[in-house]
């Protein structure tokens, strides 16, 4: 995992009260019920703070935010 993915993985585990070994960078976190909308809101805030990007509500889709790898790819696209 990239540095961002590793830090995001740790943040999600802590915020959602999960064991980090329970999920990987490819686990569908929202679709499979690992996180809920409250945790997703925290994740978006964390990503904005960590990366300096602003995430539009319309960009928060399963295609962009269901896995850690999708989130990291989204950030990379946004940062250009």
TrEMBL record:
Q: Which Pfam families match?
A: PP-binding
**InterPro entries this protein is in?**
ACP-like_sf, PP-bd_ACP
- The Carrier domain covers 2-79
Name-wise, this protein is: Phosphopantetheine-containing protein
Origin organism is Paracoccus tegillarcae
């Amino acid at each position: 995992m990239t540095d961002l993915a590793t830090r995001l993985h740790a943040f999600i585990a802590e915020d959602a009260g999960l064991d980090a070994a329970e999920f990987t960078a490819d686990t569908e976190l929202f679709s499979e019920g690992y996180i809920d909308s409250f945790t997703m809101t925290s994740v978006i805030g964390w990503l904005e703070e960590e990366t300096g990007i602003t995430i539009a509500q319309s960009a928060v889709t399963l295609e962009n935010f269901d896995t850690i790898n999708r989130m990291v790819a989204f950030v990379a696209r946004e940062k250009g």
